[in-house]
Amino acid sequence: MPHLLIKDLPRYECLLEAAREFPDLDPSATEVFLHLLRAGDEAFRVVEEHLAQHDISQGRFGVLMALWGNCQNADCENEKPLTPAELADRTGVTRATMTGLVDTLERSGFVTRTPHPDDRRMMSVGLTKRGEKLLARILPPHFRRMAWLMEPLSEPERRTFVRLLTKVLGRAAEAPSGSESPARGPASSA
After folding, report:
1. What is the pLDDT of residue 154?
2. Position 169 in a domain
3. Do 73 and 20 sit in the same domain of this protein?
4. Does residue 183 lie in a domain region?
């Protein structure tokens, strides 16, 4: 589902005009923010269309990737078991959501639940051979799509883009919760 529910972004001149009515509106910050959301939505769409061809959702794919990334070698022989709570933390979803994702993946035969090796009261989630085969089918074209999407950017532009996005991510982590509004500070140069 898109995060930005408009396709045609407002022109900068429109943002300047809106700033006269709403003094807290920073036109250049708003322009960048809207473009960031729009680009994110389109990148999400490109990935979602590919995953739909394999009848898998973004959420289930995220769980499989977290488990795959947990493997220490190609055969996952040294896999450290992950609990549903650890998977929820790694993928950024609630524990309740993770339970549903694992249930679906287990029914499809892509993951298994087993008693945790250190604490029998807990369960561990692991990738099955079937899950590994699914990822082996999905990942090569998935990686090609990522490369295709980023192809217009040169290597230096990509490094700059990552550096800039890292700054935005860091700032987002500082955002106050609830109804507090962050104080507007002076713009800083990149």
Report:
1. 98
2. no
3. no
4. no
Helix, strand, coil in percent for the chain, rounding step 5: 60, 5, 35
Structural domain tally of the chain?
Answer: 2
- 29 and 116: one domain? no
Q: How far apart are CA 103 and CA 129, in angstroms?
A: 17
Average pLDDT of the residues in 1-17 = 74
Residues 35 and 109 in one domain: no
Pair (92, 31) in one structural domain: no
Domain span at residue 136?
A: 56-151
| Structure confidence by residue, pLDDT tens digits, 71-111 | 645 555 556 678 999 999 999 999 999 999 999 999 999 99
H/E stretch holding 55 reads: none
Residue 129 identity = K
DSSP string, 99-152: HHHHHHHHHTTSEEEEE-SS-TTSEEEEE-HHHHHHHHHHHHHHHHHHHHHHTT
Average pLDDT of every residue of the chain: 86
Q: Residue 149 — φ and ψ, nearest 5°?
A: -65, -35
* CA 172 vs CA 29, 39, 79, 159, 178: distances in Å: 14, 17, 33, 20, 14
